[in-house]
Every structure is written in C-alpha cells, then in structure tokens.
Amino acid sequence: MATERKGLLLKADPISAAFRDEVKKDLEACSSRPKLVGILATSSAPSNNYAEFTRRQCEDLGFEFVLKKTGAALSSDLAAGEGVEEAIIDANEDGSVHGIMVYYPIFGVQQDHYLQQVVSPLKDVEGLHFKFHYNLYHNIRFIDPKSLLASPTPSASSASTVEPEEPPAGTVKSIIPCTPLAIVKCLEFVGVYNKILPYGDRAYGKTITVINRSEVVGRPLAALLANDGARVLSVDIDSIHEYTKRPRVATNPSSEPTLAQKYHPRHIVHPSNLTLEECLAISDVVVSAVPSPSYKVKTALLKDGCICLNVASDKNFEKDVRDKASLYIPAVGKVTILMLLRNLLRLQQYQQTSESS
Amino acid sequence: MATERKGLLLKADPISAAFRDEVKKDLEACSSRPKLVGILATSSAPSNNYAEFTRRQCEDLGFEFVLKKTGAALSSDLAAGEGVEEAIIDANEDGSVHGIMVYYPIFGVQQDHYLQQVVSPLKDVEGLHFKFHYNLYHNIRFIDPKSLLASPTPSASSASTVEPEEPPAGTVKSIIPCTPLAIVKCLEFVGVYNKILPYGDRAYGKTITVINRSEVVGRPLAALLANDGARVLSVDIDSIHEYTKRPRVATNPSSEPTLAQKYHPRHIVHPSNLTLEECLAISDVVVSAVPSPSYKVKTALLKDGCICLNVASDKNFEKDVRDKASLYIPAVGKVTILMLLRNLLRLQQYQQTSESS
C-alpha cells in the first residue's frame, strides 16, 4: 500500500473556486465592465500561452481583455521588446483601460524593473510597482488612493496588528503583488494560516523556507509571511536570510529604532547561519520558485509531513516529493490570475475615487 | 621612436578642473552650506575607499559630508545592508540633509534597484531614481521641480532640439545619472561633441560602442549619446542594440507614432546584426564598463585613432591600447564626483523651490 502513504496532491482549482465566486459577484456589482490590456512583446512560447490563458479566464468570467502585441510578438522582423514602453504609456493614458498586464521576461531583470515602474500604479494589476513593494516591505496595508499619483514614498495610514474589516475612512487596501499573494492564499487554504490567531499573526509558529529572493516573487513573499508572524528562511544562490517579526537581541547595542521602525512596525531581516539542508530539516512549508528545469529540492532533505509548493514553471520538486510531503501543490497560476482580476476590480474603484476627488 | 606613436593618455584632472571651478563658484553663492549624507552598508574595500574619496572631495571644496555607517560597515556582527533602508528613510526625512549617496553594490542588482527608488528624488544626487531615468530615456530635459514629489510619470515640458540657455519658466533641469553624465563631459572635453553643431545634435556623425547595458551606466549612457545625435552600439553579454535619433524605414508598415513618440521626440532602439568585432572596427569611440578584471577589449580590434574610455574599476583595455587609440581615458571618478556635487547644488535649490510653493 505504498501509494496510500503518499501525501496529498492538491491542484489549484479547489483553492481558486472561492475567489472565482467572489470575483464574479464583484464583477456583477460593477457599473462598467473592467478592461484589462495585456502587452505581449516577445515571441516566447510561455508568455504567449500565459496571454492566451489570461484571455480565456477573462472572457470566461466576463472581463474585457485586449491583447496588444508589439515587437517580436507582432512581427518576426521586430526585436523582442520593441515598442513595449510606448505601448505601456499609451495604455496608461487611455481612459478606457483599467488594468495593464505585461508579459515578462522581456529584456532581462534590470530593464524589466524599469518597465515595471513605467506602468501607472493606478493600473498595475500585477502589483509590481515600487510603491506597492514599499508598502508591503513596510507592512503598510491601507493607503490613500490619491497617494498612487503623489509623493514618492506613499504616506501611510497607521499600521495595526489587528485588521479591521474595512480600511479606515479615506483609505483603500494597497495592492499586493499577484504571485506572492496567490501563494499566501494557497497557504491559508491548506491551514498553514491559523484562523484562531489574530489577524497579522496567523502564521506564527510556522517555519517556512522560500527558495528564490527575486523582487518579483521571493522577497515580497518572505516579507508577507513574516509580517503574518512566520519565521521565514529566504534562500538565494549565495545567501540565506531570516525574515521574522519577533524581536531579537540587538547585536549592535547602540542601535535605536529608526523613524521608519517606529512608524511602521514590520518584520526584520538578518543573515542566517543555517545551510539549506538545515532549513529544509526544520521547515513546515517549502516554497520553491527557481526558474531552472535542473533545480530540484531533494525529497530526502524534507521534514516528514511538510507542505511543498512549486511556483516555478519547471517543477522544482522531485517526482517522489509526496513520499515525505503531507501535501504538494504543483502550480499556483489559476489562483494568481484571480488575484490579478481582484486587483483589477479594486483598481477600477480607486481610479474612480481619484477622478472624483 | 615607438613610444612617440602612442596615443595620448588623458587622466581626469584636466577634465574635472573646469567643473571644480564652477562648483566652487556656485557653492560660494549658496545661502547655506549643502550637506551630503553618504550611506555605507558593507565592509567592501572599494565602497570604503569611494566613501573616503567623497569625504576628501567634499571637505576640500567646502561641502558638509557626513558618513552614516550601517550594517557590516558599522560592526562585523551585522550583515551587509542591515539597516540601510532605514538609514535612507531617516535621511529623506531629515530637513538638514540636502543630498543622499548610497555606496552600491549592497544586496545585488534587484534589491539595490529597490533601494534606489527609496531615496527621495529631491535628494538623489546620483540621479538613480526611476523618474530621472524616465526623463533621460524620453529626452525630457526640463521638469517642474514639484513633479519630483508628484505624478508617477513626470509631466514633461516640451522637448526642443535647440536648448535655450535657461530652462523655460517654472521648470528646472532634470537630474542626469552621475556616471553617464561624467562620460559625456569627458567626450565633450576631448572634442567628440562638436560645438559647431546645434545643441542636441553635437555627437552627430560619431559611432560609439558602449560595452555594458546596465540601468546604472550603459543604458542611460547609450540613450544620452543617441539623444545628442550619435549612432550608439550598445553591447551586452547576449545582444547588441543600436540607439539612434535618425529616422529609419519602418519595418512594420502599420506602425504609427505612439502618443509618447509624438510628445517626446527621442532616440529609437533596434537590434543590430553586427558582431562586437564589427562594432569596434567602425567605432570612433569605445566606452567599456564591464565589472570584471578578466574582461579586456582587444587592442587589435580597435579602429586606428579611436578614443577609448574605461569606466570599470578594473581596466577593461589592454596595456597596449594606445598603440591603436589616439586617446585613452583610464578613469572618470574625479569627474563623476563633481557631477554629483553639481547635482547636490541643484537639488538644494529645487528643495527650496518645492518648500516655498
């Protein structure tokens, strides 16, 4: 009965079902149909597939989706990325467009970061703009929607460890990057988040290894989980950092809390002396997002009964992962797209607020 | 008489002399002494040396310089980068500070990009904030200083091919990233820029190879040179792009100018079919900024009589470079620091404008 002892394989559909219903309901309540523009600037097959996936999901739910092709996506005579910045600016300036999604990678990490800042934060359904990362890293959950067009570091509403049901008057929820948010929603679904604990501390007691520390997935995810109380071991190619909200003994006796720390209580980060093997041995959850087909987390190193979640398009876990893992989620894309559409609905509202004020 | 045939070795001192005088004069006219805060967050020897170099230059010229050490720069018990974001935010919020300089690299390209957005653009003497890169890439030379605290993509004053002596009323000059600007000033000094040509076209007719396409040096430099009329061959590890302001035949017959192109006439970028060897063979100027001691531009490939400029801390040219080059500039750091101090003087003024309005 070897197969009976295997851990559970959990596909994203049951996780996304509740969000699907929520998004459908919110869409019905909309005065006008939200319009998402996808911008495809390369001939990459995964980007093309993801664009078609976005279209199907949008049309299925009743959102308007327009795919704008540019550069190598438009013609084999053109280079990857040609015209993509202009396409973004046109969509920023087009009042009929409520959300913008760009299919990365295009130029590579540095120039793609630049493009992510060109997308207006008021239309940034992916939550990749610096302002949203800043809010996330500083645990700023509510913002004045007008701040998305103002001050370089957004003015914060006071952070609170217990979230009220609704944002304080005059504020709205900050946008959280789609993929990290989808991962959190998966972990909520499978009970890693404990609903008995107060909001903002529901991952307290959990040790979570996150393999990848990019600005798009790994670092925002580590910050989100730590802001929710988890001990996060953030693993990258050359270092392991620990993200935690719990106080630790200051190694520098003269250090006092900075203004920022006083105003925005949030997680702290320090280097870890643990090895990857040691991290895996103590982790209740392992999330891997390494963009390489050859990278594999060794099943033998996992803690028995842990929860494993693959975010990479290539599988980062070995075939026998469920011999050790109690639960394995192989992909999160179907949850990610719903977080994106939820962001689209919110941003459409924020745009109306900004216009009317 | 082999040595007589060698090209000229030009150190940065004669180039920086004129800027030194200009900065000194402008400093004397200041109502209050500008204060620069340097933030050092690693134990890296080059960063330490550069911080001490900044201090000497500031004190020599009469600027106030305060070095704020944090993380591994403060104590060997602390990690590289620990507390650096808080130090930046404190300096942003400290009214007595006029400029902020952070010694990179700290975490690596992605997280360092994030930090560059945390520095307030009103204090960003290095010109590394997204808003300044956006202006540069769009050839927006004059900005409303208030825009540095407002709208995510700055509102442009109309671009002009002929620069007036002074910015149009209500606008100020945008800040240009220090290192690319210092390189342009070197090329102006050695006559690559032709003063007989109209402003904005003074590099017309010159072919320039730039080796490196980072967002900090190579890409902004390519854009600056192309905005000034040069044909720029931008070489990176996996591709060669051509930056130019000259029109070319559209490869896509249906493409019309975008809103952005209509509003901000600027350089265009397209992929090149040339190899590095072919680029070097036709280049009047070769700028190299590859952060590797083993990378060398082969002297044998250079066009006879070209001008070579090394920006890397390791020398990217071979010892015999002057056998082919008519002129070789081995380092630009002394010009860069003066561009930084010039930015500091300007930003101090912009801060006063923003406060009084």
UniProtKB/TrEMBL annotation, chains A, B:
Quote the cellular component terms of the Gene Ontology held in the record: cytosol
Instruction: Offer one Pfam family short name for this entry.
Output: THF_DHG_CYH_C
Q: Which InterPro entries match?
A: Aminoacid_DH-like_N_sf (IPR046346), NAD(P)-bd_dom_sf (IPR036291), THF_DH/CycHdrlase_cat_dom (IPR020630), THF_DH/CycHdrlase_NAD-bd_dom (IPR020631)
Q: Which PANTHER family match?
A: C-1-TETRAHYDROFOLATE SYNTHASE, CYTOPLASMIC-RELATED, METHYLENETETRAHYDROFOLATE DEHYDROGENASE [NAD(+)]
Q: What are the Tetrahydrofolate dehydrogenase/cyclohydrolase NAD(P)-binding domain coordinates in residue numbering?
A: 177-239
Q: Which GO terms describe its molecular function?
A: methylenetetrahydrofolate dehydrogenase (NAD+) activity; methylenetetrahydrofolate dehydrogenase (NADP+) activity
* A biological-process GO annotation: purine nucleobase biosynthetic process
- Annotated protein name in UniProt: Methylenetetrahydrofolate dehydrogenase
For this protein, the record's SUPFAM superfamilies field holds: Aminoacid dehydrogenase-like, N-terminal domain, NAD(P)-binding Rossmann-fold domains
List residues of the Tetrahydrofolate dehydrogenase/cyclohydrolase catalytic domain.
10-126
